[in-house]
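Batch manifest, entry 17 of 40.
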Amino acid sequence: MQIKLPKFFRRLDKFILCIAVSTSIVVAGVSAYLLSNFGDRIIKYESDTTAEYISRQTFNTMFQIMKKGWNEKQVMTFMNALKKSSKNDNTVKTSIFRGAVVDKQFGKIPQGKENFIVKKVFKTKRPFHAVVNGNIVYAYPLKAQKMCLKCHTMAKKGDVNGVIEVSFDPSFLRSRLEGYFILIIFLIFILPIAGGVFVTLILRRSIKNGMKSINGAVESIKTVKDLKTLDNKLIDLKFEEFNRIYNGVSGLSERLRDIAVDKDVLEFEIKLLERFIITSEVVKDWKEHVFNMLNEMNKIIKVYNVFSIFMEDESSIEIEVFWKGEPTDKTKKIFDEIIYQNIYHNGLSTFIVQGMGKHEIFHNVSDRNVKLPDLKKEDLMVQTKKIILEAPHIGGIVGIGVQSEDEVEGVKGLVINSVLTTLLNVIGSIKAIYKYTKDLEYYATRDGLTNLYNQRVFMEFLHYEVERSKRHNSTFGVVFIDFDNFKLINDMYGHNFGDKFLKGIADILEKDKRNEDIAARYGGDEFVMILPGAGEEQSYMIANNIRENIKAFTLKEPITGKSVGATVSIGISVYPNSASDDKDLFLLADNMMYKAKKAGKDTVYIAKEEDAVAAFKEVSEKSKMVMDALEKDIILPYFQPIIDIKTGRPVAHELLMRIKLESISSKGDESFNIISAGEFIEIAESIGVAHKLDLILLEKAFQKIKDENYSLDMFINLSPKSLIVADYVKTVKQLSLKYRIDTSKIVFELTERETVKNISLLEKFVANLKYEGFRFAVDDFGSGFSSFMYLKRFPIDFLKIDGEFIMGIFEDKMDRAVVVSSISIAKEMGIKTIAEFIESEEVLNELKEFKVDYAQGYYTGKPAENFVIC
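Output type: structure tokens
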């Protein structure tokens, strides 16, 4: 961790000075403490020694005198002399105390009061010292010796006849020592500071001179070339560490010379790049933008022109030259030759070079008031760059013509090269965006396959036609056309062949419609038309004519050359007879198309009054039922068991959707109807709520799995519309976490309905969920071309064989072959197989012989609200 110093300490001299002062304070404090303790010990030691010495000397003096035979008077004189001496000397006081034996023999005399020290010495017969009121007190016992017994007849050898007490006041010594201590501490405190100041002054001077030299050298650097001066100016900073820093700076300058760019060159490039921002206005007026860039470039370097050559297809070549001023005809001619030469040397595609001779070069002038002189080839220097784009398919060259005398070598040459690159990107991007914009404008209104109008534009036209017809009190027809058995053609001959059929139908519509009619592809194999001014009879005639021409239309399939034909079912509604609202008209035409299919296909059905009433009633009731299911939460999860075909025990369930409708009889009895998904899912998809139904169903199923601690696999069929809902995958993940679902137990079933055209989106959907641990199954395998593509492109775990083939394994050899082939493919790929629509024991036994892994159907288990575990 880096320690950040306060601002004050960031100067080296101040930092050193502060360290010196801090060190001095610490050393002085420690020294004061140590000296104080040491002084006290010395004083105590000296006081003890002095007191002991005086006591012993006093005793020795008394002993020597007593040996000569003192009388009592002489003793008293000696003791009085000691008292007087003690009074005159405040430092040392000596007192003699007589013992009880002496008092008994010679009588008591006036003497001071015995303190605890004296008493202790009388008792212990040993010397003792202590501190009393700050004084050092030493007491020495006067023991009777053999010689003493001559006078002290009542004493015994070793008795304490008296005690000499010496009291020493150490304050005198302490006062003398304190002066020395203060002087020593002062010197200890001041000397490091003085040394720090001295070192700081030397360092500051050396650093200041060195930094001044370095700053001078750095400030002299104006361009990259001046970086060399740092190497040439050898500076001695007097300290090895500082010299190393300077050498590091010199090394850095050497490396900077290799990578740095001069400020003016950098500003040159930045000013140009500021103009290279592509906006919608730039795309719209790109030539004006190029002129602006040309003018900006001329502020930095003399540029005569900028040119571009772009090819959008083999027959479309655009050559544009942008001049800063009006060139002469001679200059134009010379520059045309330069363009051809540079393109040839650039090695662009030969068809562009060849094609250029057939195309005019357009010369654009920024300011016609500026007249350029006649220029020769040697006056111009041209630099170019080329670009080839795969998507969109465009390619070309951009170039810049600068005055030959301008220096374009070295860094400046690199800058001009970068300008060319940016110019290429700008013009190339503008061209690409322009082409994309044109394509978008077209495909925003057109279907990419048939070039008919698309669904969105058709609905806008339909709304407009309703409003127009209201104003003019006129009629018009709405025609809904649907391929009969188009899925079969796709399955048998592939999607490419199916697409050709759709294009063929589109051509028939374009050919048979009137000029004022509008034809559109609504989606998949559905087409729609608006017939302005047409009543019921005319609408029927136009529609029937289209039906007959489509019936007569055939295509040869690519393998055998066999002619393949198709029919269509057509529904018609007419404004205002059928309905007066655009949505109602469309809905009714769609409904009539389904009636035509039910009537046997290859039929035109026009709406009558009773059809309109019945259709609107049915759609309205089903729409209301779906919305009620969402609002009232009457969606139910049902579960159909999937069994192990060998053991007959359930290994999984398929999740199915039901709506529970309440009904009350005339007698007031309450009952419930269970509605299967087949009766309302298309309405739910048409009104955009299918994915909401799916998520509600999923959450209820997850809740039941958690509540009942369900541990088998769960197969879930998803509505294709759910795949394009942005947060669908995210919500599925959140639900699995909320209910703590083992994602490896959840299997999502992929069907062909509307998903193959969104294959990339489906691929992303599968990858995201597979990453989270979910598994996948292909539903209705064998019924469509896409089933095999799913196996190839997706990580499939289960293959559910279409029930239509299962039901026909005894009667239809083709169905039997499909089932056998599907099982063989799955086993080769390590995928488990599930046979659907098992409705008899006979079929189940046959599938056991085929070695199918699992079975599902009404025979093995009907859908129910509860799980079948055993």
